[in-house]
Design brief:
Strand content: 25-35%
Order of helices and strands: EHHEEEHEHEEHHEEEHEHE
Shape: globular
Structural class: alpha+beta
Strand order of the largest sheet: 1-2-3-4-5-12-6-11-10-9-8-7
CATH superfamily of the largest domain: Gcn5-related N-acetyltransferase (GNAT)
CATH topology of the largest domain: Aminopeptidase
Number of domains: 2
Distance between the termini: 32 Å
Largest sheet: 12 strands, mixed
Number of strands: 12
Length: 309
Amino acid sequence: MTLIIRDFRPSDAEAAAASYSAGRPHLMVTPAAVRHQVASAAPEQHYRLPVGELDGAVVGSGRVGVHASSGAEGQGFANLSVLPAARGKGVATALLAVAEEHLAGHGATRIRAWVDDEPTAVAFAEKHGFERGRCAHFAHLDLTAPLRPVPELPAGVELRTAADYLDDPRPLHLVDVEGSQDEPGDLDLSDLGYEEWVAEVWERPDLDRELTTVVVADGRAVAFSAVHSDGGTRYWSAFTTASAGYRGRGLAKLAKTDSLHRARARGHTDAYTNNDATNAPMLAINDWLGYRRCASEWVYLKQLRAEQL
């Protein structure tokens, strides 16, 4: 058995996407999105995607970098994935070693990783010095079943899609950044500049602008439900939010419900979403829509030792 850890090549995109989603039907990533994430990452993010090659075949991958848009310094991330059949062969351990060395070399003092709520994954994280943090839940909605009707539009409110903002997506960036400021979590990622947002968010190849519903009130965008699609039958809720002054009016629920109806009309059959376990308002919307929890994950945190820095 020969194990090699090397940097990602564009030809690895399909294998890297497979290692990310294998055994995790609630996750969705396309090869095109993998390639885009590597190509679009800001230089200050020091993004790296190492892959694990076992006997000539890519069986694992890691998404590693620095949270450059965080207000706190020294925050790194390392999210590792290995095909189920290749686990227990040292691939994840080797990927983690490369990730820690890379992050330490770029000034990270703390590593943040998402870990499946599954005994083997949790044991691996804790064995390597990570400590448990926040919890998030995944949920699934069967789009072949009846959907809740789209709520009645309040006076002065209209629905558009992200496709209406192709010439100038700045209004959506403003809503996104404002919504991120109040997003539950242990890391502030609201400081995402417009150019970086365009590269990382707006230009993602799996962002489905026709399914991304935008709520307009008082002449401006005030809420949206962003959607990623695999181009087939799977739908992923990337982010649903409303501007601070427009919350509590049901506009996020309106956006998400309308988007799901658009997806069903197009032939999508399965919708997935993910929320912090403390995000009661969005969890309530998902429950109302009929989503049912299908998996969970934990944030695990690790301080890098002095000798690693």
